[in-house]
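Revision sheet: structure tokens.
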Amino acid sequence: MASPIGIIAVIVVIAAAYFLMSSAGAQGMPNTSGTTYYNSDGSITGATITSDQSSWPSSDNIWKMCCAIASAEGYAQGAGVIPYDYNNPGDITDDASQYGSGTSGITTFTTAELGWQALYDKLSNIVNGGSSVYPVDADWQTVGNTWSNGDDNWATNVASYLAVDPTTTPAQYAQGS
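Predicted:
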């Protein structure tokens, strides 16, 4: 008969493995090579994301928009800037209940991967008409005005990164048009 301590140890190991796999949106075996993998649903598995833009996910147009926003928000500057220090490349203020916590109005994510995933999910909602804040037909200027609290440079920087006109929409970019 197994001892109660042995049973508890097995339960703890299983729970820890489940938490690690589910908290990063992982599906399948975890990645230990440092390579970033992207699942067909857009989630990140075993990502190692840093301030180095070559480590940023960019496998589809929504991820490319995430990179543009992270760049506009200063994530590439690394330690010392809120988006990087809070693991929040989009400087997201409204997703604390689902992904992380935050007391300053800006969500703090426990890992960079969760912050990137939240940004991807937010953009997916925008381009699919599921956002209650951004209409699917909102252009980059309109999105930028709300996202950045009126900073006109935000939309210009995002559009420039994506090589599009700021009067085009995120939905158009996601669809490749």
